[in-house]
Every structure is written in C-alpha cells, then in structure tokens.
Write a structure and sequence with these properties.
10 helices, alpha/beta, 5-stranded antiparallel β-sheet, 8-stranded parallel β-sheet, TIM Barrel, about 325 residues, about 35% helix, single chain
Length: about 325
Amino acid sequence: MEPWGEPEEDISSGLWALPGLVDGHAHLAQGGVEIRPGDLDGAAALAKMALGAGVGLILDKGWRDLTVVHLIDKVPAAARPEIEAAGVVLTVESGFWEGFGRNVAPGDIGNMAAVAAGEGAGWIKLIGDWPRKGVGPVANFAEEELKEAVAAAREQEARVAVHTMAREVPSMAVRAGVDSIEHGLFLTDDDVEMLGARGGCWVPTVLQMEATIKQLGERSSGGRLLLEGVENVKARLATAVEAGVHVLTGTDLAIGTHQVASEAIRLWELGMAAPAVIEAVSWSGFRATGRPVGFDVGSPANAVLFSEDPVSNPRVLADPAAVIRMGRIVS
C-alpha cells in the first residue's frame, strides 16, 4: 500500500512550516478510554491518522502490553510519525487500574525498571501516585526507589516518565532525576528550575485533566484537587519555559493523537504565549529527544505546512495545508 503522492509543483510558496507536530503523551494501543489489551492494527491506523494531521513525533507513554513497541517494527518509518515508546507501565498493588501494568514488589524496582527499559523503545513509565478511596492520590514509590529506577533505565539509555497528580510526588520525581513529568499538577518553582537545568520535559495534558474534572465533578474532593492543580499548571507554564523545561503538548486519552493541536490551542487559551505554544507542540519535542530540527540542506525532509503563521494564529495548527514525510506529500 503506497500512501504517498509525488508533488507536481512547489507547494511551499506562501506557507509557514514546522518540522512536525509532537504528541508528548500518547497511548496508541487503544483509541479511547477502554482499558483493554492493545490493538496492533488499530494502533497502526491511529499512527497513520496522526501523520495525516501533521504529527511528526509521538512519545507513547506505555500500556498494559507492548503493542506500540511492536508497531514501530511493523509499520515502515515513512508511513508513520517517528515514535518512541514505553512498554508495560510499572506500578504497585492497588496503585493503578486493576490488572493494568506490572506491580513492583518492595525492593525490586531496579530489576523491574531494567526489564521495562529492555522491552521498551526508549522509555519506561512509572505510575508515581494513584488515588485511594477516602485518601486521594498517594505515592506509589519512595524517592529512593525512583532514583533506582532512573539509574536502571540510564544503563540501557532509556528515559523515565512519571505519572503524578499528587502534591508531593512531582518534587520527589524531579529530585530523583526523571526525564519527563506527566501531568505534574503540583510542580513548584524549585522543581521547574531543577528540571529545566537538565533539559527535562513536562507534559501537563490539560485537556485530559479538564476531562477528568468533568467526570469526577467539580465539587468532589478529587475534582477540587485537580481544579487547584490546573490553576497551578497555568501559573507555572511561563516559569517552566523560562527555566528551560521542554513543555510538551500531550493528548493522553482525552483526545486522539491526530488532535494534538487542540491541546496546544488550549494551552494558548490558558495564557501560554503563542511562541511558547508553537515550541511545545513542535520544536521542543524534537530537541528534547535529540532529533535535528530546521530546514537547512541535509536536514530531514519532514514538515507540516500552514496557510497562516501559527505564531500569529495558533488555531491554524488544527488545519495544516500539507504534510511532508521523508520528502513526500502525505495523501
């Protein structure tokens, strides 16, 4: 199956180009909130749909199986975005959805992290905290355990992402040296300074947080906590960018990866400056993962083109004029 068409003329005249959009927190294994084993064919279709929407890089943050890792091998690179992926997520007993992910026994985090790093495609994912009935989100791992996981991942050149919605866990994870904070509702100024100093990532997934608030109800204890967290996110966005953090757009399960532009637009609506929004949905993801960016001779022939300057109007991100992958136009 050939998904490409050769350009008959120069389509770039009068258009604005980015190297591609980035989804920094995706779950391609399933197309929604159904917590089931992954669907390889469905994941391939979602990846193709994302490419058609201008997505050039996906950081998949894990599932209950290795569907997305297998996808990377199954689908030729020219027919999908670049993909890095965690494999099976790591948690503890009662620390995530029942039966989802691998439970880490006390004292075994280093071994489990090493296994996860070997199975994944560049990442491991830890569920840093999870709500317990009547208590709210509780830390699943001690800070020393997080440090062990980071050390084990480093030995295999893998990065570590940590899910966190609790108050204390973002600071623990940052001090432990993790590479990416997922959600991170309660990051502090000290956290973003430390994270930025090492070029770490933060993927706030605002649309997912707002969807969860709606599901829980704004007056519930969980809803109130997340509302407070989203307000903290708004207050930290500019500080994080200034500190050098790679703030990235991420869809999670709220929307599809092909809709990642909606997350960028939401960040803009929440007060993030337009240039920073464009960085978050494009350039920063490539830089954070060590990929070349730019359009100099010899650079990768990948681009998403827009009829308006996205810095002047971020809403145009949702309506690309053309997408180029490896020198060919996506049809």
